[in-house]
Amino acid sequence: MKMLKLANLGGWLSAINETQRVYLPIEAADQVNYGVWTPDSVVRLDALRTVKSAKDAFFPQVENMMNFKTEGKNVSVEMIDPKVENFVVLGVRACDAKSFEILDRVFLSDPYDPFYAARREHSTVVTLACGRPDENCFCVNFGIDPADPKGDATMWIVDDTIYLRASTEKGEALVKDLEDADTAPVEAQQAKTREICEKLPFGKLNLKGFDGDHLMEKFNNPKWAELSRACLGCGTCTFVCPTCQCYDIRDFDTGNGVQRYRCWDSCMYSDFTLMAHGTNRPTQVERFRQRFMHKLVYFPSNNEGMYSCVGCGRCLAKCPQNLNIVKVIKALGGDEA
Amino acid sequence: MQRELIERLNALIGEGVGKRVLGWKRGEFFYDTEPAILAADQLDELVYDSFCGPNLSKYLIQEMPKLGEGEKIIALIKPCDSYSFNQLCTEHRINKDKVYVIGVGCKGKIDVDKIRARGITGITGIDVDGDALTVHTLYGDEQVNRKEVLLNKCLSCKGKEHRVFDEQIGESEETSTGDDRFDMVKKLEAMSAEERFAFWRGELSKCIRCNACRNVCPACSCVKCVFDNPNTGVQNKAAADDFEENLFHIIRAFHVAGRCTDCGECSRVCPQGIPLHLLNRKFISDIDELYGEYQAGEEVGQRHPVINYTQGDCEPSIVHERGSNA
Description:
The complex is a heterodimer of chains A (337) and B (326).
Chain A: E1 2-5, H1 9-17, E2 21-28, E3 31-36, E4 42-43, E5 62-71, E6 74-79, E7 87-92, H2 94-107, H3 114-121, E8 123-128, E9 153-158, E10 161-166, H4 169-175, E11 179-180, H5 184-199, H6 215-219, H7 223-228, H8 236-240, E12 247-253, E13 257-264, H9 284-302, H10 314-318, H11 325-332
Chain B: H1 2-14, E1 20-26, E2 33-39, H2 59-63, E3 73-77, H3 81-90, E4 99-104, H4 112-116, E5 123-129, E6 132-137, E7 140-145, H5 152-155, E8 167-169, H6 183-190, H7 193-204, H8 212-216, H9 244-256, H10 265-269, H11 277-291, H12 318-324
Parallel strand pairs in B: 1-3, 3-4, 4-8
Antiparallel strand pairs in B: 1-2, 5-6, 6-7
C-alpha cells in the first residue's frame, strides 16, 4: 500500500501528465464529468457519480471511422488509424470499472472493434473505492464490492490522504515512487462502507427469473405498458448508462466527400434500428421493454449470466420522470416471475 | 390534501365524469413521484405532495385519441401547469371538452437535487412539516428549510391562480422569491459578446443530445420532430462538429418563442443542468419589450405576438439595430 496527501494530488497528476494524459472527474459549469486533466481543472474525486460514465474514455459519443474524398471521377478512402497514446483513467468507481468488463464482451469479441481495443490496450485504469454510497446505489446485487474495486491500481481516500494499491505492472508504474503506507485506515473505511451496503434500500434486489429460460414470459408481461407509461422517449438513461453500447454509423456530407462516423444511439428513439420496412418497435412500450430486456435477459443469456447493469444508479438519479431499472426489476422479478 | 383528493376522485369516477385520472404515483422513495394514468381501482397509488414537480399537461396529447365520444379524462393540474394546458388547447393538441380539470393547490415543489447539493446524500425518507423538512439518510438525519430547496421554476412562481379548472382542491401559495425572473437574462445581455459566448459555450457544450428538454417541452409537440426524421437530411444523432448542439438549443428556443409559457421543465429535466430556460426567457423578455407584455397560455385562443400583427409592432429593422451592437 502506498499513500499520497490529497493536497499533493495535483503534483502527482502533473508528473503522470508528463508522459500520458489523465482522464478523471472534473467539474465544469456546475457538473462533474470525465475530462482530460490540466493544471486548471477542478478535480472532483469526491463526486459519487459523474453525469456521464467513464465509458467515454473507450467508447466516445462520436468518433470518425473513415473518410471518403472525391476528386473528379476518383474516390479515395482514408481509414482512420485507431492508434492511441497511453492514457490513464483515474477515479473510476467500482460500478464503472465493472462496466468495462461488460463492454469488453461486446467490443472485444469477434469481430473485435479496433477503436475500442486500441483504447483499452493503451489505458491504465485507476479505480476509487466508495466511502459514501447513496440510496440509488445497487452495485452489490451484481457481485461488485464498492469498497474494493478492481483496476490496474485502486485508490481509497480517507480524510486528507489517498491510499493506493497497484494490482498490475501498469498500475505499479504509477504508484512506485509514492510513500509506503499502513493498510489500517483503508480497512477501517472498507468495513464502514460494507456496513452501509447492508443497509442500502436496493441492496437486495430479487433477480430471480431474469434469464434466458424466462425470456418469452418476461417479454410478454403485460406490465410493460404501465412501467413505460411516463417515458418521454428521451435518451438520458442510455447516454448516462455505463453499459449501454449501441451505436449508429452515419455519413456526413462534407461537400467534397463523406465523413463516416459512429455515434451513440439509443433504443429509446423512434428511429433506432429503423429498417426499410419501418420499425418493429412502433411505440415507447416496445422501446422501453427492449432496453431492460437487453440488460436483464438477452445479455445474461448470451454471456453466462452476466447482467449488463452494474447498479451505478445513474438512470435512477437522472430520469426526468423517475423511471428506472430498479422499478422494472421489482415489478417483473423475484416472486412476481 | 391527498386523502381529500382521492375521495373526490372516487366520487367523480362514481358519478361517471371520467374513468381515468392523470396524476402522479409514488415510486421507490418518498421524493420519487412518477406521472401516471390511474383507473378507479388504482387510485390508492395516487400521490399529491411537495414532490409532484413534473408538468403533466403534455401527457394529455397522447390520451386524446384514446377517449371515446363524450368521454373525459380527469387531470390534476397545478397553477403553473394550467398555462401549458391552455397553450396546448390553443394549438388544438388538447381538446378541453375531453378533460375534466381539477386545479390542485400548490405551495411549491421540492427539488431533491438541491438537498443533495448540500452534501446530504443517501436520502431514504423525508418528513415534511410545514417548511421544516427532516431528511432521513443512511448517514443520519438532517434538517432543511423547504423554501431553500424548491425547484427553480417555483422561484419564479406564476401565482396561485389556475388559468383553467372545472373545480379546485387545496390551497395554493405564491413561492416566487420576488426577484425579477429576467435578472439572469439582463446579466447576460450586459456581458460583452465574448463573455456571453463563453457562458453559452460552457453550458451548451455539456449537452449529450438526449433530447429530454425537447421531449418534455409542452411547446415541442410535433408528432415527429424534424431531427428524428431520416428523410429530412438534417436528422442527427451526433454532432458534425462541436457547435451543433449549441445551435440545436438556440433553434429550438426560436421555434417555441411566443408559445413557451416558461414552465421550466427543460431545465428541470436536463441531466447536465444546462439552464435552457434562459434562452426562452430571453425571447419572452424581447417579446415583452418589443410587443408589450405577453404571457403564453393565459387564455385559450390567444394569438401570440410572433404570429399576430398590430400597428404598434416593432419595425423589422430592429434586427439590424440589435445585430450591430453585438
